[in-house]
Amino acid sequence: LRRILYSAAELVNGVVQGRNACVLCYGATGAGKTYTMLGTVGSPGVMVIAIKDLFAKLQELSFNGEHVVWISYLEVYNEAVKDLLSPGKALVLREDKQGNVSAGLTQHNTYSAEEVMTLLHRGNQNRATEATRMNETSSRSHAILQVVLEYKIKESSTTVIRTSKLSLVDLAGSERATATDQLTVRSVEGASINKSLLALSSCIRALMEQKKHVPYRLSKLTQLLKDSLGGACQTAMIANISPSSTSYSETQNTLHWANRAKEIRTKSSIANEELEIPDSQIEMTKQLLESQKQNEELRMQVAQLEQRLLAVESQKLTSSPSLPCSSPNLLPSSFTPPATVHLIRNFHDLKEESHHMKTEYSVQLKHKDDVTRTLYKMGPGVEQMIQNNVCVPTGADVSVIQPSEILTPKKPTRTTISASQHDYDNPDNRRWRFSD
Question: Which stretches are annotated as coiled coil (predicted)?
Fold first, then answer.
C-alpha cells in the first residue's frame, strides 16, 4: 500500500507541474478495488489521499489564488455514461478534431479537499451497487473521478495558463458467468462489465504491440480513458487479487492482464498551455474591431450617397429641354433656368461630398490594415481572436482607448433641392414670376 501511495504522490506532483495523470484499479469482484480507491474513515484510500495531497501542494506553492480546481464524477453503467453529481439522462460522448472526448459533465469549482470529499460522498450515493454472490456491495459500474487544475504562470512579459487533469478510476469487477445463470438484471450488468473490460484489454494489447489503430470505440469506457492510455499522461495501474482459493482463475487472469498493461509506454509532457493575451494586445484588438465597425458604417453612408447622386442625375436628365416632363409630381417651375442652375450646383456639392466620404473610407481601410498587421506580429492568440471576431469578455479590466488616428466619419448633409423666387423676362417681354 505504501508503494501505491508513493506512486500516487508522484502523479500528483506531475499534475501540479502541468502533466496529466491517471490511476486505474482493476480486479475481479470482491478483490477490494473500491476499498483501495476510497478506503474508510480510519484508513483513507487512493482517491482521498491524492485529493488531500493535491490541495496541500497548491497551498505550499502559493499560487495566490491564481488557480482553479474543477471536479467531475461519472459512471459507465451498461454502456451508458451518467453524471453522478447531476443525475439524469445518459450523456453523449463527443470527439473533436484533435481526438479529445468530452461528455458534457457538470464541473464543480472547489477550494478545499473537504469540498471534494463532500462531492465524492454525494456521487457515491448515486452510484449503481448491488449484492452479488461474491460481494454484498458490488460496484455495477465503472466510476471515474476527474480533477482538472488550471493555474497561471508568469513568464517574462507574458502569462501562461496551464491546464492538467488527474483521473481516478474505480473499475467494476470482472465476473465469471455460470451455466445456471438466468437472464436477469444482474447477468445483463455482468455481461456489460465484461464487454467493457474486454475492450480495455484489446486497447492495451494494441498499445503494447504499438499498432497504428487502437480500438477505443469498442466501449464508452475506453473512449473516456483514451487520453489516459495512449496520450501524454502518466498512468498507474493497480491490480487487485483475492487470497481466496475459489478465485484462483480470476487471480490468474488479473495478473496476466497486469503483465500486459505494464508494457505500455506513454509519453509524459506538459498537457495544455494557453498564452494569455496581454492587456495592450486586447486594447489593440478592441481598436481593430471598432475600426471595422466604423468602416461598415462608412460603407453604408457611401452607398446612400451614391443612391442620392443617382436620384439627382435622374432629375437633371428629366429637366433637360430635349426630354418631356412625364412625372406628374414635378411642377413646371422646377425646370426653369435658375432652378436648373441651382440643381446643378447641388449635384456638384453632393458629388464633392461623396468624394470626401470615399477618401475617408480609404483612410479607414489603411488604418485597419496597419493595426491588423501589427496584431498578427504579436502572436497566434491575437490572430485567432481577430479571425473569429471575438470581443473581450464582459467584465474584463481593460480600458478602451479610442485612437486619435481613427477618423470620425462626417455625416452627410441633407441638401434640399428647391427653386427660389425668380423674375424672368421672356423674349416676348412678358413678365413671369416663379416661386416654390
Answer: 286-315
Is 195 labeled as ligand-binding?
A: no
67 and 146 assigned to the same domain:
yes
Kindly state the cell numbers that stand for 410.
462626417
Is 236 annotated as ligand-binding? no
The residue out of 250, 275, 300 marking a domain boundary is: 275
Reduced to 3 states, what is the DSSP secondary structure of residue 168? strand
Task: For residues 150-166, give the mean pLDDT.
Answer: 79
Of 63, 150, 52, 165, the C-alpha closest to 109 is: 150
Range of the domain at 377: 278-434
Task: Say whether both 313 and 256 belong to one domain.
Answer: no
27 labeled binding residue: yes
Residues 300 and 210 grouped into a single domain: no
- C-alpha cell at position 20: 496529466
Query: 217 and 352 share a domain?
Result: no
Structural domain ending residue among the three candidates 240, 275, 310: 275
In CATH, what number is assigned to the domain containing residue 207?
Answer: 3.40.850.10
Read off the pLDDT of residues 371-407 as tens digits, 9 standing for 90 and up: 777 766 665 555 555 555 544 444 434 333 344 443 4
Output the nine-digit C-alpha cell for 234.
502518466
Instruction: Confirm or deny that 31 is annotated as ligand binding.
Output: yes
The model's pLDDT over 330-372, given as tens digits with 9 standing for 90+, comes to 444 445 566 666 667 777 777 777 777 778 777 777 777 777 7
User: What is the C-alpha separation between 398 and 171, in angstroms, rounded?
Assistant: 48
Distances (CA, A) of 89 to 46, 80, 121, 204: 29, 9, 21, 30
Measured distance CA(108)–CA(130) in Å, rounded: 28
> Would the pTM count as exceeding 0.70?
no
